[in-house]
Specification:
Pfam families: M20_dimer, Peptidase_M20. Its cofactor is Mn(2+). It is found in: Endoplasmic reticulum. It is an enzyme of class 3 (hydrolase). The chain is an alpha+beta fold. The chain is built from 14 helices and 16 strands. It has two domains: about 325 residues, Aminopeptidase (3-Layer(aba) Sandwich), CATH 3.40.630; about 130 residues, Alpha-Beta Plaits (2-Layer Sandwich). The strands form three sheets. Strands 1, 2, 3, 4, 5, 6, 14, 15 and 16 form a nine-stranded mixed beta sheet that branches. Strands 7, 9, 10, 12 and 13 form a five-stranded antiparallel beta sheet that branches. The protein has a two-stranded antiparallel sheet with strand order 8-11. Strand 1 and strand 2 form a beta hairpin. Helix 2 crosses helix 14, helix 4 crosses helix 14 and helix 12 crosses helix 14.
Length: about 475
C-alpha cells in the first residue's frame, strides 16, 4: 500500500475516534477512558472559567455584579468570547442578555434554549447562575471540536440572562421575562437607589431600550422547542442523599413585598415612652408576627372554601418567609425614627396558600399598626406563580443525568433524585414561553448567596457531561 494511502487511513481512524459519542465510555470505569469524557474541557476549563468569572466584580473583596454594572458588562463580554470559542454566533439584545446560537442541520426547526443568569447578589458565590452558562458552553464546545455541532437536528441557543436576582431594581427576571414576553413595559422606568432607571442603565452601555424594541424581544413560542437550565441546588438535599445531580419537578411561587411603617419622629431622650409613635418598635412586632405565621400557618389560617386542610398541609411543608432588608429614617442613635421600611420575601409551592398567607399577614399587620398609632403601607413588588416542570423534558434530562453518572463511575447509579426548588430561577419566567426543565447540582452544605458557596470540580464535570449527554440526543 502506498505511504500516502497508509497515512490517510491512519488519519481517518483518529478522526473517527475523536468523533465517537460519549456512550463508548459507559463501559469504562472512572479511571479508564476518561478522554472520552473530555475532562480538559468539561472539567478543567469549566472550573477555570468559573473562577475567572468569579473575579469579575464591581467591588473589591467580594463578588457583586448587578444589572448593567461595569462588571456585569465585562462578564457578558467574557461569556460572549467563550461562546464564540465554542463555535456559536453571538449577540447582545436590548435587555443586555448575551446569546450564543448554532442553527444545526435544520434552522427552521424549533430551538432548544439553555440558560441561566450572569448577575449576582451582593457578597455572592461564584457558581450561582454562572455554572449553568459555563456547563452549556462547555458541552457545545465538545460537540464543536468533535465535528458534531453542525449535525444537531434543531437550533440550540445558550442565553446568559442579564438579571435574575433583582438586586439593583428590585424586580427579578429582567432578562428572561423580556424574552418570555412577560416583562411589563413600565419596568423600563423603574429606578435604582441612585435614581437611575432600567432604560437609563442600558443607555449608559449604548443599548437603546425603547418600549417598542422591548416588545420585539419576545420570542415566538412557535420557534421554541423547550428550555433547560442547570443550576446549583442552593440547598442540602442532594448532599444529604449523596448525589451530585438531581432533577427539579417544580419551583415554588414567590411574592416580594415592601412594608413602610411611619410614626412620629422625635428626640430619643425627651419623648416619654407612653407618648411615642415608634415605627421601629412596630416594625419589630410585624417581623415577629411574620416569623410566627410562617412557622405555624395552621394556627393562623381559617378553613373556608378557598383555604382547605390540604392547602395548609402543603404550606407547612414548603412555606418560607424572610425579611432581607431594613432601613430607617433618620438613622441616628439619639433619634426616634420617623419611618422604617423593610422587605418581605414569601415562597410556597401552593399559590392559593401563598395568597392566603399574604392576606392574613396584611390584616394582622394593619391591626398592629392601628394599635400602635402608626401608619402602615404594604406594596407588592414582585409576584411569580409556582411552576411545574414539563414531565417529558424532565424525563429526558433525568436520563441524561443518569447517563453522565454512569459514564463517570462505570457503574449503574441509583435513580437520580427528583426534588422541588424553593429558590426562583429564570425557568419560572421562561415557562410562560415554552416547556421547561431543570437539573440541580450539589453544593457543599447547601450554602448559596455567600462566598462560602462551593461546587466540587467533579460535580461540575458531572453537570457538563449531563448537558452533553442531553445534547447528544439531538445529534
Amino acid at each position: 500500500m502506498p505511504t500516502n494511502a497508509v497515512a490517510l487511513l491512519i488519519l481517518s481512524f483518529f478522526i473517527q475516534l475523536l468523533a465517537l459519542p460519549l456512550t463508548l465510555a459507559e463501559t469504562n470505569t472512572f479511571s479508564e477512558g476518561t478522554k472520552y469524557l473530555y475532562p480538559e474541557i468539561l472539567k478543567d476549563e469549566a472550573v477555570t472559567r468559573l473562577v475567572d468569572l468569579g473575579k469579575v466584580s464591581d467591588s473589591h473583596g467580594f463578588l457583586e455584579r448587578t444589572f448593567q454594572s461595569p462588571a456585569s458588562v465585562s462578564a457578558g463580554n467574557l461569556i460572549r468570547e467563550w461562546m464564540e470559542d465554542a463555535g456559536l454566533r453571538t449577540w447582545v439584545d436590548q435587555m443586555g442578555n448575551v446569546h450564543g446560537r448554532i442553527e444545526g442541520m435544520n434552522p427552521s426547526e424549533k430551538a432548544l434554549l439553555i440558560g441561566s443568569h450572569l448577575d449576582t447578589v451582593i457578597d455572592a458565590g461564584m457558581y450561582d447562575g454562572a455554572l449553568g452558562i459555563i456547563a452549556a458552553i462547555s458541552a457545545l464546545k465538545v460537540l464543536n471540536i468533535t465535528g458534531r455541532l453542525g449535525r444537531l437536528r434543531r437550533p440550540v441557543e445558550v442565553i446568559a440572562f442579564s438579571d435574575e436576582e433583582g438586586v439593583r431594581f428590585q424586580s427579578t427576571f429582567l432578562g428572561s421575562a423580556a424574552i418570555a414576553g412577560v416583562l411589563p413595559i413600565s419596568t423600563l422606568h423603574a429606578q435604582d437607589k441612585s435614581g437611575v432607571t432600567v432604560q437609563g442603565a442600558l443607555k449608559i452601555n449604548s443599548i437603546d431600550a425603547t418600549e417598542e424594541n422591548l416588545l420585539q424581544l419576545k420570542y415566538d413560542p412557535k420557534s421554541v422547542w423547550g428550555y433547560i437550565e442547570v443550576h446549583i441546588e442552593q440547598g442540602p438535599v442532594l448532599e444529604t442523599a449523596g448525589f451530585p445531580l438531581g432533577v427539579v419537578k417544580g419551583i415554588a411561587g414567590q411574592t416580594r413585598l415592601r412594608v413602610t411603617v411611619k410614626g412620629s419622629q422625635g428626640h430619643a431622650g425627651t419623648v416619654p415612652m407612653k407618648l411615642r409613635q415608634d415605627p421601629m418598635a412596630a416594625a419589630a412586632e410585624l417581623i415577629v408576627l411574620l416569623e410566627s405565621l410562617c412557622k405555624q400557618p395552621e394556627e393562623y389560617l381559617s378553613y373556608d372554601g378557598q383555604c382547605t386542610a390540604s392547602t395548609v398541609q402543603t404550606l407547612a411543608g414548603s412555606l418560607v418567609c424572610t425579611v432581607g432588608e431594613i432601613s430607617t429614617w433618620p438613622s441616628a442613635s439619639n433619634v426616634i425614627p420617623g419611618q422604617v421600611t423593610f422587605t418581605v420575601d414569601i415562597r410556597a409551592m401552593d399559590d392559593l396558600g401563598r395568597e392566603a398567607i399574604i392576606y392574613e399577614m396584611s390584616n394582622r399587620m394593619y391591626q398592629i399598626c392601628d394599635r400602635r398609632s402608626v401608619f402602615c403601607h404594604i406594596d407588592r413588588k414582585h409576584d411569580a406563580n409556582a411552576v411545574i416542570c414539563d414531565q417529558g423534558l424532565s424525563s429526558d434530562l433525568k436520563s441524561a443525568g443518569y447517563a453522565a453518572l454512569k459514564r463517570l463511575t462505570g457503574e449503574n447509579p441509583d435513580d437520580v433524585p427528583v426534588l422541588m426548588s424553593g429558590a426562583g430561577h429564570d425557568a419560572m419566567a421562561m415557562s410562560h414561553l415554552t416547556k421547561v426543565a431543570m437539573l440541580f447540582v450539589r453544593c457543599r452544605g447547601g450554602i448559596s448567596h455567600s462566598p462560602a458557596e462551593h461546587v466540587s470540580d467533579d460535580d461540575i464535570w458531572a453537570a457538563s457531561v449531563a448537558v452533553l449527554a442531553f445534547l447528544e440526543t439531538l445529534v
